[in-house]
Design brief:
Blueprint (H helix, E strand, L loop, with lengths): L2 H19 L6 E2 L1 H8 L11 H13 L3 E5 L2 E3 L9 E4 L6
Length: about 90
């Protein structure tokens, strides 16, 4: 992995955390929102960051920082196929 790829990965992870922080605790985001935030152009080049954004979400999920959701239900990072949403980890009530 190149230094630029690592920098983009770090920025995508931070963008996911920042976007979720600005939303209600139960809100979800799409990986495209992080890709658009990190992309530095004004065209649709952000699309090239979609798979890196999904990988960033998987890393954060594996670290226990976010959940990947499909159909309103959390799925494991390796199970997610097709469109996903990302949300804060929901802790069960005590």
């Amino acid at each position: 992995m190149t230094g630029n790829e690592q920098q983009i990965d770090t920025r995508l992870e931070q963008a996911i955390r920042d976007l979720l922080e600005r939303r209600s605790p139960s809100a979800t985001i799409c990986p495209s929102e992080a890709a658009r935030r990190v992309y530095q152009g004004d065209d649709d080049g952000w699309r090239s960051l979609m798979e890196p954004a999904r990988r960033a979400a998987r890393r954060l999920a594996e670290a226990g920082q976010v959940e990947i959701v499909q159909g309103g239900r959390p799925v494991g990072p390796a199970e997610a196929r097709g469109p996903i949403r990302i949300r804060r980890v929901r802790r069960p009530p005590r």
